[in-house]
């Protein structure tokens, strides 16, 4: 069995005055997420912060509690594990919190956020997203995108309905079709998959993926460097590519649990 070890970095970019991205990771929880906010005034910052805070608080409180535990959000998917259902509940609660906050504060009307999230669940990984923040897996030298953007240009809801070749759609292709908090209900994409030692997972806002090609991202993750160095390289590439938006990247690398215990033992015994 493997566990995940993370690193993260965020930058305001070269074209924005404030950073509307938020992120969180906790190796002990096995939880990693990125949220990219949108909305006038401070709306984007508020939305992404609410998404991250609500989800992390909910998962911390309920992850190891029985499913019959009171005060859980009232939603359940029979196809998902208890841990994945906890993630699902947290996402729906966060959507409700952002939507309610937007409705009750005129300055925050129309705010919303994307979400990209992974969480360990035994030998499996829960992968969830809303919007166009992406999740990638780097395994055996190959980079694979695990998410489909909820944009007009990609969202499977609109397959066969919209002509993607048209000038109008190519212009509006970045328009989000799903986002956290924009509507009272949200439909996240959520699934479970096995993960293994050596995997590296990348969660990022579109400030990275709009500026840096997947080929270049894969080359960075191939480097024989530590996670902190790799995540810093990704941010630097986004800035070198124009830095048109806030840019955030969270990396999570899978390694055997015994390796972590050995490092801890050596620290205690050797004092380094």
Structure, briefly:
The chain is 33% helix and 26% strand.
Helix and strand layout, with pairings?
Layout: E1 2-11, E2 21-26, E3 31-38, H1 43-62, H2 82-104, E4 112-113, E5 115-121, E6 124-130, E7 134-139, E8 142-145, H3 167-172, E9 189-194, E10 200-204, H4 206-209, H5 214-222, H6 227-240, E11 247-256, H7 257-270
Antiparallel strand pairs: 1-11, 2-3, 3-4, 3-5, 5-6, 6-9, 7-8, 7-10, 10-11
Could you describe the 3D structure shown?
The protein has 272 residues and is of the alpha+beta class. It has one domain: PPM-type phosphatase domain (Phosphatase 2c, domain 1), CATH 3.60.40.10. 33% of the residues lie in helices and 26% in strands. Strands 2, 3, 4, 5, 6 and 9 form a six-stranded antiparallel beta sheet that branches. Strands 1-11-10-7-8 form a five-stranded antiparallel beta sheet. Helix 1 runs antiparallel to helix 2. It is globular and about 55 Å long.
């Amino acid at each position: 069995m493997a566990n995940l070890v993370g690193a993260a970095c965020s930058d305001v970019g070269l074209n924005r005055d404030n950073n509307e991205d938020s992120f969180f990771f906790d190796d002990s929880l096995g939880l990693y997420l990125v949220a990219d906010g949108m909305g006038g005034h401070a709306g984007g910052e508020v939305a992404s912060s609410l998404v991250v805070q609500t989800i992390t608080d909910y998962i911390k409180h309920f992850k190891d509690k029985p499913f019959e535990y009171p005060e859980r959000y009232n939603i359940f998917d029979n196809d998902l594990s208890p841990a994945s259902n906890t993630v699902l509940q947290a996402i729906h609660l966060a959507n409700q919190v952002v939507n309610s906050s937007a409705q009750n504060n005129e300055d925050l009307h129309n705010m919303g956020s994307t979400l990209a999230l992974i969480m360990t669940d035994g030998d499996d990984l829960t992968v969830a997203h809303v919007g166009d923040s992406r999740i990638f897996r780097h395994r055996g030298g190959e980079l694979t995108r695990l998410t489909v953007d909820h944009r007009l240009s990609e969202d499977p809801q609109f397959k066969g309905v919209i002509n993607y070749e048209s000038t109008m759609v190519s212009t509006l292709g970045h328009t989000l079709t799903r986002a956290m908090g924009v509507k009272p209900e949200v439909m996240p994409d959520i699934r479970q998959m096995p993960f293994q030692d050596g995997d590296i997972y990348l969660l990022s806002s579109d400030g990275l993926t709009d500026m840096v090609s997947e080929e270049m991202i894969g080359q960075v993750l191939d480097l024989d460097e530590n996670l902190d160095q790799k995540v810093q390289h990704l941010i630097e590439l986004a800035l070198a590519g124009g830095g048109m938006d806030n840019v955030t990247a969270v990396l999570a690398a899978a390694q055997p649990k015994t390796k972590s215990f050995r490092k801890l033992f050596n620290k205690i015994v050797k004092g380094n």
